[in-house]
Amino acid sequence: MDSAAPYLTHGPDHTAAGPVLGLVTGLVHAADWVYGHWYLLALVITVCWLVGEWVVRRLAAKASAQRMALELVSTRHFDPSLEEIFRRGVQLARASTAMPWWAPRRAKSVQIRLRADGSAPLRYRVEGPAGGERLLSVTPFGPDVTVNRARPTVDTPRAHTVRAEFILRGKIISPLREVPLKPDPLQPLVDAVADLRAELGDLAEIRLDIQRAPKWALRERRLQLMGAARRSERREAQRAARWLRQDASGIEDSLGWHLQQMLTDKPASGAGRRLVMPPVPRRVEPAEALGKLAEDGHLVRVQLLVMCASHIEGRAEARLAQLQAALDVFGGRSRWAMRGWRLGPWRIGADHWPTRKGFERRWKLGHCQPPRANWLRLEELTGLLKPPTVHCRLPVLAGDLPTFSFGDRRLLLQGIYRGPDGRERLVATYAEETLFEVGVGKAGGGKTERALAQAIGWAHAGGGLVFVDPHRDSWPRAVPFLAHDHLMPRIALVDLNGLGANPRVSSWNPLGMHHGQAAHEVVEAIADAYASALAWDDATAPRALTILTAALTVLVAINETACQAGQPEDQATIFHVRALLTDPGFRKAALAAVAGRLDEETRAWWQSVFPTLPPDAFAVVLNPIARLAANPVSRAFLGQPAGVYNIRAAMDTQMIVWVCPGGNGPTDRLLTALLARDLLRAARSRRDTPEAKRVPFRPYFDELITLTGAAPETIAAMFEDLRKYKCHVHGMTQLLSRLPAPVRLSLVQNASTLATTAGSKSAIAPITAEWGDEPSPDRVATMERFEHYVSMNVRGRRVGPVRLRGPHLDDVFAAQARPKQVVALERAAQANAHALPLETLTDRAAQQFGRVAAFLAAHARAGVAPVRLSKENEWN
Questions:
Q1: Among the four residues 567, 568, 571, 582, which has the most C-beta atoms within 10 Å?
Q2: CA distances from 172 to 368, 573, 717, 854 (A)
Q3: Residue 744 burial by CB count (10 A; 0-12/13-18/19+): exposed, middle or buried?
Q4: At 288, is the pLDDT very low, low, confident or very high (cuts 50, 70, 90)?
Q5: pTM of the model
Q6: In b/e form, how buried is each residue of 54-81, taking b as 16+ CB within 10 angstroms?
Q7: Handedness of CA 864, 866, 868, 871 (dihedral sign)
Q8: Per-residue pLDDT band at 869 (split at 50, 70, 90)
Q9: What interhelical angle do 38-64 and 356-365 show, nearest 10?
Q10: Average pLDDT for the chain
Q11: CA distance 597 to 863
């Protein structure tokens, strides 16, 4: 017993419990100290957070300084597939990680910028890490998208600016609405900025940052979603069990249930009550609970920032509302919504403290700090991963198509464009780029009115032109708007219709040498005109061409001799071909007078070949000339020795010449062919002038069907060659298919501007086919009168086809109308063309045979060396 006494009296073992108790006591004291000095701990945490945020921001800013920008420009035929767009999205997501290892996550992103500032309907830029340039610059879109290195954008401050950040609202696991590629998903955004006005400082820009989803954030989000789904399922099971018990209790307490128990043999007892089995919570399927977050692949986080600005109050806010409505198109069970809070009429968002500074930092540096809800799959971003496609209607801005300014020689009026906001403006193309123009449409559709408006605007700007109208209707229509004192000295009217009791006619000698033409060019032009009008060629009429060429060579030599002798009034005309071929005395005198000017081959032909020709060989050459001589107007016009008409001088002195042939009969076609070929010859003769000194000149051909019937090859050659000599042709016709094949092909191939009014589908189809049938012939055929679809070249690229309303002279040039000076202009135009009474010119033409015969007799034995004559301006 004694030996056990110490053990009985010994207390508990404090040796082991002491450290634990001390630790607990220490923790209690530490918690008490922290509780009493919580502000110190909060201060330390705050300082650490601020230091960490400062370091992260500095690193992110350093990484952002290494970013690069590319601008993607799509062609009008860009039509990508879903697979191509998806591959582009994969490239963007991969490129977002091409950053140094030390770069913070907020700097690891690729930014898509959709910008509208008046220079283009919607600029599409991609900004990303410099290390991802190769990945970003090589797109799966092929040649339909051009990738250019983009310059930094510098915006001048606007008076009013609004900002907004958009987040995904709705179920986070639900995708955005699947928007089809036709029409283009960008169409709502393009429409939202279609009425932007650069002159008011309007600016709208959308920035979409794409960032690869971090694994830890995705796992955290999945755990939250799965936990929330399980809790929701448990609550649903508990709610269902509660309702089930209530339903069972209600049934047992009902009168029907008690009657049933009374009628049965079994007595009611507690054991007879129904056993209610509560429903078991349903198993949560991850695919259903996680939705679009169930799979790791092609999942990204996005940040959507928008900024609108303007110098006019209210326009920026209205633009933001339009963009917000445009983004609603992508909304389904999940949608884009503006981040912030609304307090009555006020909204607190990115424009206000405390979020504005962070917004501006992310906007300036390109940092991506998306909200927790902004998770998207690449398939949901399909509409924003590519530039506008062929299915997007782009508005025509002032930067795309310049606004016409009266008196500006750089511009050519094209029509009236009605913008998306309902405003109308006169649009134009640049004159130096408008090389050839073709207008097609039915009679009365407004194509001639549009050409007249363009020609009148060009004339007032100081430009030279010739307007060839076989029907003369354009002259009285244009006269009131050209009747200005400063224009009258430059206007000349060559009217071959012979209207009125005492018509006045100008004069032209196609063989005249008093203007300094090259002899061989004159002979070639007249022979080619004959061949074109009469369908001659070396296979069908070789002898006729030889006879005519030989006769013209002699007559041109006679005229050179007369001009050198100072006697231009003694020149031969085209009507002397008959005398040269059929009058032996005249022929002998002519060959003797110009023997020194003819080459040996030509003299040999006249001496050895001509005498062997039968008399009937000359009929095919003389018949057309006889028809010209039988018409008093054409005889008076062509029968003068020193004609005034000189289209080369008109080109060089910027004259405004109206040429009205008499009709479209055989005789008129020959005369038209002569005029057309002379125009081609005159334009080609400008090669003697340095290109920089060639003055632009614009021939306008109304009723091309009539004109090309006389000179198809000549008109085709004009559309092919005259650009080199700054002579730009404008042609109008009712039916493109009625034109000869060479003319039609040259027109369509070289047309800088192609326009059509309404008409039959078969007539319009060749034009719309050039546009890829967009617009379709059905749409064009149903246009209103004076409406046009026009495609134009502006700054080296094609604009349109754009729907324009044809300019009406009474509206567009109402301020320039001078109806009281019409008579004065008529007199001035005839005086500038040296138009004389028809009877006077007819008498002179009849006397010209005698004058030439007398001249030849006097010079039959004189040999005069050929001399190149100096040019003389007969219009002044």
A1: 571
A2: 19, 92, 67, 106
A3: buried
A4: confident
A5: 0.78
A6: eebbebbeebbeebbbbbbbbbbebbbe
A7: positive
A8: very low
A9: 30
A10: 85
A11: 8
**Closest-CA residue to 650 (of 719, 727, 544):** 727
| Alpha carbons 44 and 485: distance in angstroms, whole number | 88
What CA–CA distance (Å, rounded) separates 485 from 490?
10
Per-residue confidence at 274, pLDDT binned at 50, 70, 90? low
Is the backbone of residue 652 left (phi > 0), alpha (psi -120 to 50) or beta? alpha
CA distances from 494 to 280, 446, 475, 682, 864 (A): 102, 24, 11, 17, 35
Report the distance separating Cα 320 and Cα 809, nearest Å: 40
Beta strand pairing status for 424-430 and 411-418? antiparallel
Residue among 509, 512, 516 at smallest CA distance from 871: 516
Query: Which residue from 675, 668, 669 is spatially nearest to 646, judged by alpha carbons?
Result: 675
Give the whole-angstrom CA distance, residue 238 versus residue 243.
Answer: 9
The string of DSSP codes covering 37-57 is THHHHHHHHHHHHHHHHHHHH
User: Do the Cβ atoms of 586 and 623 come closer than 8 Å?
Assistant: no
Name the residue type at position 653: T
Instruction: Say how far apart CA 288 and CA 268 lie, in whole Å.
Output: 47
- In degrees, to the nearest 5, what angle opens at C-alpha 816 toward C-alphas 812 and 819? 115
Measured distance CA(254)–CA(232) in Å, rounded = 33
Return phi, psi of residue 338, to 5°: -75, 130
Q: Kind and range of the H or E element at 805?
A: strand 797-805
Mention every residue, 6+ apart, whose C-beta is less than 8 A from residue 568.
Answer: 512, 514, 562, 641, 642
Residue the block writes with tokens 């000349």: 492
- Count Cβ atoms within 10 A of the Cβ of residue 421 and give its class: 0-12 exposed, 13-18 middle, 19 or more buried: exposed
pLDDT over threshold 60, residue 139: yes
Q: Where are the alpha helices (DSSP H) in 535-575?
A: 542-564
Closest by CA to 731, choosing from 369, 325, 454, is 454
Maximum pairwise Cα distance, the chain: 181
CB contact burial 532-555 (16+ within 10 A = b; e otherwise): bbbebeeeebeebbbbbbbbbbbb
Pair 586, 572: CB distance under 8 Å? no
Q: What is the token pair recorded at 353? A: 């403290």
Task: Give the DSSP H or E segment for 825.
Answer: helix 822-832
Name the 3-class secondary structure at 440.
strand
Place of tokens 């007799």: 857
Which DSSP helix (H) or strand (E) runs through 23? helix 14-36
pLDDT of residue 142: 85
Non-local (6+) Cβ contacts of 330 within 8 A are 176, 177, 179, 185, 336, 380, 383
| Residues 806 and 449: beta-carbon distance below 8 Å | yes
HEC sequence for 346-370: EEECCCCCCCHHHHHHHHHHCCCCC
Q: How many CB atoms lie within 10 A of CB 197?
A: 17
Separation between Cα atoms, residue 698 and residue 656, nearest integer Å: 10
Residue type, 548: L
Those residues with Cβ within 8 angstroms of residue 703's Cβ, 6 or more apart along the chain or in another chain = 469, 470, 471, 732, 733, 734
> Nearest-CA neighbor of 807 among 530, 416, 523?
416
pLDDT, position 258? 60
- Written as one letter, the residue type at 401 is L
